[in-house]
Design goal:
UDP N-Acetylglucosamine Acyltransferase, domain 1; binds uridine-diphosphate-N-acetylglucosamine; 23-stranded parallel β-sheet; seven-stranded mixed β-sheet; Spore Coat Polysaccharide Biosynthesis Protein SpsA, Chain A; alpha/beta; binds calcium ion; 37 strands; 452 residues; 17% helix
Length: 452
């Protein structure tokens, strides 16, 4: 069972938002902590909330979580004491901080294993610059004392071993120590660390050292938030490199942790991949590709400065430069979308092409159709959206306005500059424009100079 202490304020981030709702690599830091606990096999999650509790609960309304209110934030010890009323009987509590988002599931498993044969366990890390974190004093392989930085002597401050804020503690025993807490003389808070110190004088508490001290990073400032973001993004980049993805400029790409990329795909500088994006193998994503919640098949090329959001792009497609695929855009194998083309809620069949300057919304475009420059599906009549259907192999001339609902049949053609508001049967040509009038010698008769 996991308990997450998440009642802190955002004040040290100079923010009105509850601290745990600030995002790290695209997700609120509390979401990251909760999914780590789940991945480590924690079946029941209790989350202590206080400041901004309503906003926090709302952000996680779809998750199975027991919310525990801590009406006043009187310290980490007071926060954990709040969960006593939710529990009956004995339990092993894995206690995490909502503001330490880089912990890996394997680390939770290690701390849990370290507690076997001891009363409890805590995670410790060695940091070059331990800053304001609690310092660990050990004796014979067991915890002797945790000293908060504000209370530490010079000698204790020099210690580089710090308290991560991750513990495995037995209930109900821990509540006896929490009930006896006195406010800290410096900050006036009830410290969970003081309860551990009292327990450590009577029982063995094992220390489990993190293999990767970066996991200990707690978020107490905007600079920490940026560091945590970069750490998670770099972690994902390194994993993908291991899996055969080429990052030409690893420090200049952003890949959120949930993104999947196939082998032999090459990412240029300034590529951003976020949300639940999957990219296939042998793709090439050029400078400035911004891709969120999208699926790209294999052998896809995304040319520079293209935006893909909620798009589904089939094998061998080519997108951009400067293309925009919005939610519901679906490109089937080998389709092409070129510069300044916007696609929303529309399917382009295999090999269909829209090379330049078009808006394709709420449309169905058949295989091999060619959409000329400047074509617009006029999908909105001011009240409702309507569909445009374009058949296989159709040729939509440049600057055609397709006033939906409208259907152009297979192999049909529309003349450039036409406003099409009646269906065009398969194989037909539809032209809607006035005939050109040509007036000879117009310039001379108007007394204009002949240009040389
Ligand atoms: C705490 C530890 C410190 C450790 C550090 C690791 C204590 C006293 N100190 O310090 O030894 O090195 O974490 O990051 O525990 N919270 C509540 N209710 C409260 C107060 C805090 O829910 O009344 C939550 C916060 O939202 C946060 C977590 O508990 O998620 C830790 O609290 P914080 O005030 O950030 O503790 P630190 O000063 O970082
Ligand atoms: Ca903290």
């Amino acid at each position: 069972m996991a308990v997450v202490l998440a009642a802190g304020q955002g004040t040290r981030l100079r923010s009105e938002r509850p601290k745990v709702l600030h995002e790290v690599a695209g997700r609120p830091m509390l979401a990251r902590v909760l999914s780590t606990a789940r991945a480590a096999g924690c079946s029941r999650l209790l989350v202590v909330v206080g400041h901004g509790a309503a906003a926090v609960r709302e952000a996680f309304a779809d998750q199975e979580v027991t919310w525990v209110e801590q009406p006043e934030q009187l310290g980490t010890g007071h926060a954990l004491a709040q969960v006593e009323r939710q529990l009956d009987g004995a339990a092993r509590l894995l206690v995490l901080s909502g503001d330490v988002p880089l912990i890996r599931p394997a680390t939770l498993e290690r701390v849990t294993a370290a507690a076997t044969g001891s009363w409890g366990a805590l995670a410790v890390a060695r940091l070059e610059r331990p800053g304001s974190l609690g310092r660990i004093v050990m004796a014979e392989g067991r915890l002797r004392r945790i000293v908060e930085a504000a209370n530490a002597s010079q000698a204790e401050l020099a210690s580089q071993q710090i308290n991560v804020g991750l513990y495995l503690l037995p209930a109900p025993q821990i509540f006896t120590y929490l009930a006896a807490l006195e406010p800290d003389p410096v900050k006036g808070e009830l410290y969970l660390t003081d309860a551990l110190n009292a327990a450590a004088s009577e029982h063995a508490i094992a220390a489990c050292e993190l293999a990767d001290p970066d996991e200990a990073l707690g978020i107490n400032s905007q600079a920490d938030l940026a560091r945590a973001h970069r750490a998670l993004v770099d972690r994902r980049g390194a994993e993908l490199q291991q899996a055969g993805v080429t990052l030409l400029e690893p420090t200049r790409v952003t890949i959120e942790p949930e993104v999947e990329v196939g082998a032999d795909t090459v990412l240029d500088a300034d590529v951003w991949l976020g949300g639940l994006t999957t990219v296939g193998s042998r793709c090439r994503l050029h400078q400035g590709a911004w891709i969120r919640d999208s699926r790209l098949g294999d052998d896809v090329e995304v040319a520079p400065y293209s935006v893909l959001d909620g798009a589904d792009v089939g094998d061998g497609c080519r997108v951009g430069p400067y293309a925009r695929l919005r939610p519901g855009a679906r490109l089937e194998a080998g389709a092409r979308v070129g510069n300044f083309v916007e696609v929303k809620n529309a399917r382009l069949g295999p090999g269909a092409k829209a090379g330049h300057l078009a808006y394709l919304g709420d449309a169905e475009i058949g295989a091999g159709a060619n959409i000329g420059a400047g074509v617009v599906t006029c999908n909105y009549d001011g009240r409702a959206k309507h569909r445009t259907v374009i058949g296989e192999g159709a040729f939509i001339g440049s600057d055609t306005m397709l006033v939906a609902p409208v259907e152009v049949g297979d192999e049909a053609v529309t003349g450039a500059g036409s406003v099409i508001n009646n269906d065009v049967p398969p194989g037909a040509l539809a032209v809607e424009r006035s005939r050109q009038r040509t007036v000879p010698d117009w310039s001379r008769r108007r007394g204009r100079k002949k240009s040389s």
